[in-house]
Amino acid sequence: MEKSSGAATGGSAPPPRFDMEDFQLEGKKPVKNPFVPIGALVTAGVLTAGLISFRYGNSQLGQKLMRARVVAQGATVALMIGSAYYYGDQIKLFKKGSSP
């Protein structure tokens, strides 16, 4: 049996090239509140430290870190809601024309 190459028989073409311009997020706003990503990183860091402390058997420290994670997570959510309200990106709870 004779094998033929895929290119000679109309096989797939090479993938197209991508430039960094192709990956720009159009219509996305820049981060207005830098505390939100910082809060997310703090939350992830405290979570990681808590899981590591549980892994090594220090359950008291792990519990404290899990409580700190909840506080950090709540602060991050509060910052997201506060910045959305401050910058005018309020959630539309009412239809147009209706009163609150």
From TrEMBL:
Cell location = Mitochondrion membrane
Listed transmembrane segments: 35-56, 68-88
Indicate the segments forming the HIG1 domain, all copies: 7-98
Annotated signal sequence range: none
Q: Which InterPro entries match?
A: Hypoxia_induced_domain, RCF1
What Gene Ontology cellular component terms go with this record? mitochondrial membrane
Disordered as annotated region, ranges: 1-23
List UniProt keywords, sorted A-Z: Membrane, Mitochondrion, Transmembrane, Transmembrane helix
Database matches in Gene3D superfamilies: 6.10.140.1320
- Establish whether keyword Ligase is in the entry: no
**Membrane found in the keyword field:** yes
The protein depicted here goes by the name: HIG1 domain-containing protein
Native source organism of the sequence: Digitaria exilis
